[in-house]
Task: inverse folding
């Protein structure tokens, strides 16, 4: 099984584009039907449409909140999975760097410090041919060790590749996480604007919400395409990651090394076993030879003590490096294998019953990207679907809310301007010049005429003077009203 090609992932993105087209087609048909089926509504029919808009707004708000919650969880899970992969890559890179450091230091000791000591010892022990032969044999063994170290795989290139890969993944993940975080904030902002526009009955806000809703709908389906392609591609890789990595190797030696580290089975022989065995045997023989020289040659040549002890110290240091190198080159040092479980069995049933588990770089990285990462991508895909549904609902509710506002303005304009309880008529009367004085008790101009023509009787039953009524009218009405003047003579209170 090989991961899907770029063309296959592009087809998955086109599926989301088709869904976007169908969504826009549905909204277009809905708006056309809403405009074509527009009819005058009786006052009794306003309440059901108002309730419809209210429920649509409430539904869109709830879906937005649910979508953002799901999106936050999916974004966090994806981020955790990617950082688990990055941690595994960094730890593996440290192991490979440690191998490089040990190989380089051991080679330097054998080619630099050891050769210098042996050259001086050859001059000091030149009078004894057997001792000189022992030193030449020791130098040959050192050359054999250097040759074996040079036969080990060159880890520097692998370390550089892992470092570059880790940096690229961290860079992409940071901006992916930040982009989704801004996307969530934008979704909540548009939802709040929609609620504010419906509450304030603002046409400007409704137009803005309609435009933002269309934009967010496009972004939601684009996010759906990216999440689907990423989730499917990652899932296809996670089905058989070992085979995919094996297919990336070029030569037979690299394939053997990669196979050893990926599967790390006890039945597999280490590709470094021969080199490490030669290293160990050569080092042991060299230590025996130098120990003999210290025992037999040192009493005869006391001046050679410093160089002999220096060689012995270098050999002891090389032996310590050998043990460390053996531990690092062992697959259990880099792989720390879970017994009986390989990458191919990651999504399948274990081949053996559960056993004590120790974390490993390879399997930790796969678990991070194949479990947390894919799960997070699926939740982000669900977020995209919920966001698309929420903004589709908002777009459907906006024209109905616009019609409601238009209907209210139309009903407001149809009010009788002569109605004294119509606030609009009062505003118009305040700005219009007074017409001819009519004898009416329901307008300001007519009251002026009636006040000049009426002569209230001398005796009044009410104890409140006219000025008191005027002051009360000014205080409670804001404008001096004279409707109460004709009623004073009858002893009736002023109208409320």
Result:
């Amino acid at each position: 099984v090989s991961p899907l090609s770029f063309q296959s992932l592009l087809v998955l993105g086109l599926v989301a584009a088709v869904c976007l087209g169908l969504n826009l087609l549905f909204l277009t048909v809905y708006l056309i039907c809403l405009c074509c089926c527009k009819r005058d509504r009786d006052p009794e029919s306003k309440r059901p449409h108002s309730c419809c808009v209210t429920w649509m707004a409430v539904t869109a708000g709830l879906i937005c909140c649910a979508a953002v919650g799901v999106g936050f969880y999916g974004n966090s899970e994806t981020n955790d999975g990617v950082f688990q992969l990055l941690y595994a890559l960094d730890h593996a890179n440290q192991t490979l760097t440690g191998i490089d450091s040990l190989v380089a230091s051991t080679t330097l000791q054998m080619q630099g410090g050891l050769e210098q000591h042996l050259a001086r010892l050859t001059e000091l022990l030149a009078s004894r041919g057997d001792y000189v032969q022992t030193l030449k044999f020791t130098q040959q063994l050192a050359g054999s060790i250097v040759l074996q170290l040079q036969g080990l795989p060159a880890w520097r290139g692998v370390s550089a590749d892992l470092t570059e890969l880790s940096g690229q993944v961290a860079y992409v993940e940071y901006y992916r996480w930040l982009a989704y975080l801004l996307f969530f904030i934008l979704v909540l902002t548009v939802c709040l604007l929609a609620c504010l526009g419906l509450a304030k009955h603002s046409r400007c806000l409704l137009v803005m919400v309609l435009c933002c809703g269309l934009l967010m709908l496009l972004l939601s389906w684009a996010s759906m395409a990216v999440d689907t392609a990423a989730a499917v591609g990652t899932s296809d890789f996670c089905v058989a990651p070992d085979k995919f990595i094996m297919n990336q190797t070029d030569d037979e030696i690299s394939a053997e090394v990669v196979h050893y580290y990926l599967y790390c089975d006890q039945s597999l022989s280490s590709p470094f076993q021969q080199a490490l065995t030669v290293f160990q045997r050569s080092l042991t023989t060299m230590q025996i030879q130098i120990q003999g020289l210290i025992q037999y040659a040192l009493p005869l040549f006391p001046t050679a003590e410093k160089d002999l002890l220096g060689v012995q110290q270098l050999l002891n240091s090389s032996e310590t490096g050998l043990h460390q190198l053996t531990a690092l080159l062992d697959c259990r040092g880099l792989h720390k294998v879970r017994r009986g479980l390989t990458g191919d069995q990651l999504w399948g049933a274990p081949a053996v019953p559960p056993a004590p588990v120790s974390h490993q770089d390879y399997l930790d990285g796969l678990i991070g990207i194949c479990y947390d990462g894919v799960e997070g991508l699926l939740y982000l895909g669900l977020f995209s679907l919920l966001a698309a549904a929420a903004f589709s609902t908002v777009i459907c509710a906006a024209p109905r809310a616009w019609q409601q506002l238009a209907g209210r303005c139309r009903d407001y304009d149809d009010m009788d301007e002569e109605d004294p309880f119509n606030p609009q008529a009062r505003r118009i009367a305040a700005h219009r010049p007074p017409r001819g004085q009519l004898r009416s008790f329901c307008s300001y101009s007519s009251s002026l005429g009636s006040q000049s023509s009426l002569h209230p009787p001398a005796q009044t039953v009410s104890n409140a003077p006219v000025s008191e009524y005027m002051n009360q009218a000014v205080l409670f009405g804001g404008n001096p009203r004279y409707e109460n003047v004709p009623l004073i003579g009858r002893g009736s209170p002023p109208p409320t």
In short: The chain is about 75% helix and 0% strand. Residues 46-124 form the longest helix (79 residues). Residues 456 and 489 are 6 Å apart (CA to CA).
